[in-house]
Write a structure and sequence with these properties.
alpha/beta, five-stranded parallel β-sheet, 18 helices, 5 strands
């Protein structure tokens, strides 16, 4: 098996192989068919979404012996030089602007640009990380980018197009790349795993897609790490969860059920298991928020999985559907809001465990808060016939010793005395003592 990184081993060699960027690849292919190729392009977008790869493919299309063509032949010398594992072409120059973005580098490029290509149709400069070029460097390139010789093409690739000066941007055709949709990325990763001949357990690919966050290169790197550590049984869900640092599903199930039943002991026991297990409390809160998000969607759209709104294994989906039915809509929304606010508060917190415990306490005790969300959550519990005390009383039993505060009825009523019924009142006739 080759030790070459997975994202390099499966790097696309034609526009048809680029996934999730049809809004870019289709117009580029049509421009090649119409022979209306511009002299300068600007490819922008998040990292790992195919900017530099597409720039290489465009160079391959332009310098193919049968080109310019949207489908390189793959057999001519230029196509072989620019292939996935090819030696490269002397007429296609890739420059890393992070280390060659100064004015002296730009002047050197400008002087060499006017020499014709050695053996190809065009001399093509691919300038990666173009936002790292200094203002003076861009100004030195301005004239040659504006009026290049016939044999010269420029392709700028950047993650921050706003840092490319306007005079350069206005002279290019700008194509913004996007993050790849999860469904498309999951299918692509599954195909790669089949080509590698390694079994992958159900539920692993959604974790990889989530870790990659829409970046093909990041997702392929994560998948490469999992495949490298796979045993005879392949990549298991437990292995992926442990290696990627995600919270085990049983912990999420336990804390969600504790929230639904008002079981404070169970909720704080889960917190203790998270800490004792060496898990990051912030990651646990982020995963809990993801679970509550899924429950909110399932409560609103029961067939969310069929519509592609939720990506989870069948057994996890079945558990989540049962969990969504144990909450009222206001309870679920309040819990998600509190966890989201808590996740923001945990950034830079000196005691993440304390913050996690406070999040659980806020979710479990809506009666301690007088805001509208808490009131609606308490009404949800009443409608479901469930009442919880601070000490974990049984369902349906009111909290013992509870006395409404002075604000419970608009501030007009005083607290009832111990031993006297709240409905009992003493009326003194007018004129009496």
């Amino acid at each position: 098996m080759s030790s070459l990184a997975l994202y390099r081993r499966y790097r696309p060699e034609s526009f048809a192989e680029v996934i999730g960027q049809e809004h870019v690849t289709d117009p580029l292919q049509q421009a090649l068919r119409n022979n209306r190729v511009n002299h300068a392009y600007l490819f922008s977008g998040p990292r790992g979404c195919g900017k530099t790869t597409s720039a290489r493919i465009l160079a391959r299309c332009l310098n193919c012996e049968q080109g310019p063509t949207p489908t390189p032949c793959g057999e001519c010398q230029s196509c072989q030089d620019l292939a996935r594992n090819g030696p490269g072409s002397i007429d296609v120059i890739e420059i890393d602007a992070a280390s060659h973005g100064g004015v002296d580098d730009a002047r050197d490029l400008r002087e060499k640009a006017f020499f014709g290509p050695a053996s190809s149709r065009y001399k093509i400069y691919i300038i990666d990380e173009a936002h790292m070029v200094t203002s003076a460097g861009f100004n030195a390139l301005l004239k040659v980018v504006e009026e290049p010789p016939e044999h010269l093409k420029f392709i700028f690739a950047t993650t921050e197009p706003e840092k490319v000066i306007g005079t350069i941007r206005s002279r290019t055709h700008h194509y913004p790349f996007r993050l790849v949709p999860p469904g498309t990325l999951r299918e692509y990763l599954g195909e790669v795993c089949r080509k590698e001949g390694i079994a992958v357990e159900e539920g692993v690919l959604p974790l990889v897609v989530r870790a990659g966050a829409g970046s093909v290169r990041d997702s392929m790197s994560v998948m490469d790490q999992l495949l490298a550590g796979a045993g005879e049984e392949g990549v298991t869900y437990a292995m992926a969860t442990s290696l990627l640092g995600y919270t085990d599903g049983s912990l999420l199930d336990s804390v969600v059920e504790a929230f639904a039943t008002g079981d404070g002991a169970a909720a704080f026991e889960v917190v203790d298991r998270v800490i004792e297990g060496g898990n990051d409390p912030r990651r646990f809160v982020a995963d809990l928020l993801e679970r509550l998000r899924d429950l909110v969607i399932l409560a609103a759209v029961p067939d969310a999985a069929d519509k592609g709104l939720i990506d989870a294994p069948a057994d996890v989906l079945e558990r989540m559907q049962a969990q969504a039915g144990t909450f009222g809509p206001a309870e679920l929304g309040r819990a998600a809001d509190i966890v989201n606010e808590g996740l923001t508060e945990m950034r830079g917190a000196t005691s993440p465990r304390l913050q996690l415990e406070l999040i659980c306490a806020r979710v479990l005790l809506p009666a301690a808060y007088g805001d509208e969300r808490s009131l609606m959550a308490r009404l949800d519990r009443i409608e479901r016939g469930v009442q919880f005390s601070a000490g974990g009383a049984a369902a349906g039993m009111p909290a013992m010793g509870y006395v409404p505060g002075p604000d419970a009825h608009g501030g007009a009523a005083a607290p009832a005395r111990r031993g006297r019924s709240a409905t009992t009142c003493c009326v003194t006739p007018m004129g009496g003592p």
